[in-house]
Amino acid sequence: MSLPTIEVVYKPATKAFRAAPQDASLVKATFDILSAQKGQNPLPKYFGLKHEDKATAYLAIAWDTFEDHDRLMNDKGEYPRLGASTESFFEPGGKGTMFHIRSTSEPWKALEAPVTEIAVFTLKDGHSKGELEQTVDAIAKRLDALGEPAGETLASWGPTVEKDNVVALFVGWQSVEAHVNAVTTDKEVADLITKVKTQSDLDLVHVAFSK
Predict the structure, then answer these.
(1) How far is CA 144 from CA 56, 152, 176, 180, 186, in A?
(2) How large is the angle between the packed helices 28-35 and 78-85, nearest 10 degrees?
(3) Partners of 160 in the beta sheet?
(4) Tell me: the pLDDT tens digits for 125-180?
(5) How far is CA 117 from its chain centroid?
(6) For 85-140, what is each residue's pLDDT tens digit?
(7) What string of DSSP letters covers 39-101?
(8) 68 CB-near residues (< 8 Å, 6+ apart)
């Protein structure tokens, strides 16, 4: 089986979703439409609220390929219906962001952990994408080596479809505190993070996903 492409989309959350971010009924209509799409079902779909602001709703949707989702986005009948269905959890009129990650390993354990770190690295001038990918891969491998004793479940990374200079990383954690502790107490991880920050601009959030 080929590795999936993961769609990540986020937008300001509705009041109802902020109050009950684990309520599957709020995303049911959207997920029912997605489940009917070629290349999505039976792959998993996740929803949650950004830990840092408690105000941004996140979805992570697995697709067989980016082209499967692209076909839906170009469907002039189905895609507007999908957009309308999101108004129970995405604030209508709010500014949304979407990107797709071509996974280099199965990401499920990272997305199904109590907390998922989503780190997005944008390459700085003067560095190569190959350098950045090597460093992100080294971070993922070191975090997986720390593993369960450090509260880490799995790290999975991949390049993004939309921008050739962007790489994204999912890491599953038992808690946000476990993540903070691991990156501040393990010298190898700390050194790799220092290195990756010289190569890229880093945007990082935590989301407690439900399935």
Answers:
(1) 28, 7, 16, 15, 13
(2) 150
(3) 101
(4) 999 999 999 999 999 999 999 999 999 999 999 999 999 999 999 999 999 999 99
(5) 8
(6) 999 999 999 999 999 999 999 999 999 999 999 999 999 999 999 999 999 999 99
(7) TTTTS-EEEEEETTTS-EEEEEEEES-HHHHHHHHT-TTHHHHHHHHGGGTBPTT---EEEEE
(8) 37, 38, 39, 40
For the entire predicted model, the pTM comes to: 0.97
Phi, psi (degrees; rounded to nearest 5) at 30: -65, -45
Q: Please name the residue that has the structure tokens 């998993």.
A: 44
- Encoded tokens for 211: 């399935």
- Residue-wise pLDDT tens digits, 1-59: 589 999 999 999 999 999 999 999 999 999 999 999 999 999 999 999 999 999 999 99
Closest Cα partner for 5 from 139, 161, 174?
161
Q: Which two tokens stand for residue 36?
A: 């009917």
Q: Tokens 């499967």 identify what position?
A: 68
Write out the two tokens for 163: 């921008």
Q: Cis (ω within 30 of 0) for the bond into 114? A: no
